[in-house]
């Protein structure tokens, strides 16, 4: 499940493979980009912004993509077999003489003028892994809707960019509150911890192949609650619970420990 740390890893891999090289093939497989061709343009850089990827090419163009829940960018050598999924799931192909980047199951793919990138990412809050990170602004954004549940507020990329469903559940566990507790009911000391905690979690995992929040790098023990239901909580032994959270169109599986976390539940 792509989150801010995953997107930053993808951006780094794509940047190393493509930046400074000229595209020998460009195939954008979405109807609105069917006639767009980036061949013979040099890739300038690949930059992450929250959960978004901005691939900038010469000529003032940016290919904006979003991984959504199941998307990915895979890199291959010229002789390597593509294994990211069936051909009908490919949305983009960017190739140089040495490497080929293939985008699978990308829910968002659009070509913008680089000067218009704000149309795609201007709504985002401070990026937890970006140069614009501003913890004070992130906290103000979260507190702007005090009646909203903490879990939903953390997932709203307009508040702070990069937290996904895994870190939502893990952060709430570490804060000792349920994801359904309204932001306005958080104790002051707990609320002020949120930006630093969220950043710490993503920073610690930005270079890891497998996410870890417990400090124990062993299968089944890397995360406190996410994906653990109905197994016992690693801290107290109570069975971890799972329920859906969010509006009907974007409900997300949410995990919590009924002993370690205080607050309302479904």
Automatic annotation (TrEMBL):
Keyword DNA damage annotated = yes
Q: Where is the FPG-type domain?
A: 224-262
Write the signal peptide boundaries.
none
What are the record keywords, sorted?
DNA damage, DNA repair, DNA-binding, Glycosidase, Hydrolase, Lyase, Metal-binding, Multifunctional enzyme, Zinc, Zinc-finger
Does the keyword section mention DNA-binding? yes
Q: Which SMART domains match?
A: Fapy_DNA_glyco, H2TH
PANTHER family reported in the protein's UniProt record? ENDONUCLEASE 8 (PTHR42697)
Q: What is this protein called?
A: DNA-(apurinic or apyrimidinic site) lyase
